[in-house]
Design brief:
This protein is α+β, with helices and mostly antiparallel strands. The protein has one domain: Immunoglobulin-like (Sandwich). The protein contains seven helices and eight strands; from the N terminus they run ααβαβαααββαββββ. A four-stranded mixed β-sheet has the order 4-1-7-8. The chain has a four-stranded antiparallel β-sheet with strand order 3-2-5-6. A hairpin with a 2-residue loop joins β7 and β8. The longest helix is centred in the N-terminal third of the chain and has 13 residues.
Length: 191
């Protein structure tokens, strides 16, 4: 009897990738670990500057607005989109600097994930206010080094179903670096 049950379980597990590929994969929740490349900042600037990172869950409806949003404008003190997202709690804010932590983690059990799931978030936008000034131009999507866009589809992350649920992000003098890479999306013909 126990062997028969195990066989059913294994057959059920074999369907997970198929269901995920068919679009049945719900939003994944991840621990998002953000670190500062401290040595790089000390080498280029002589110090670790004050840096802010926002992590925001974005739905398909909001995607275009966020992908083309000027990062220079977003970080202006009076930007309506940024201030609204922070005030309503949709943006998880991390602050780094000389006298502050060099690593912060947004845990997968944080209440902000419930808010993102309720509004149908399918992407995670990681935004930073560094680099700043004349050294960087506004660009769309991930062409701007201050913005990374990550899918929340569980099927896009190797090992998600086996407990590997950490996304590693680093803020470097050149911008954001994602050390955990998602799989490419399936072509429409395979979905």
């Amino acid at each position: 009897m126990a062997l028969r049950s195990c066989g059913r379980v294994w057959r059920g597990l074999l369907w997970l990738p198929v269901l995920a590929a068919a679009g049945c994969s719900p939003m994944g929740r991840f621990d998002v670990s953000v670190t500062i490349e401290e040595q790089g900042f000390r080498k280029t600037l002589g110090t670790v500057p004050s840096i802010e990172v926002h992590i925001v869950g974005i739905s398909d409806v909001e995607y275009k607005e966020w992908a083309v949003k000027s990062m220079t404008q977003y970080w202006e003190p009076d930007d309506a989109l940024r201030t609204t997202m922070v005030r309503k709690g949709y943006a998880h804010v991390m602050t780094f600097g000389e006298e502050q932590p060099k690593r912060c983690i947004l845990y997968r059990n944080s209440p902000v994930w419930d808010m993102w799931e309720a509004k149908g978030s399918r992407n995670l936008f990681i935004l930073t206010n560094f680099p700043r000034g004349a050294q960087v131009r506004d660009q769309e999507g991930e062409s701007d080094p201050r913005r990374r866009i990550l899918p929340l589809d569980k099927a896009r992350w190797a090992g998600y179903y086996w407990g590997k649920k950490v996304i590693w992000i680093e803020v470097a003098p050149s911008g954001l670096i994602c050390h955990t890479t998602p799989r490419p999306p399936l072509p429409p013909s395979a979905q």
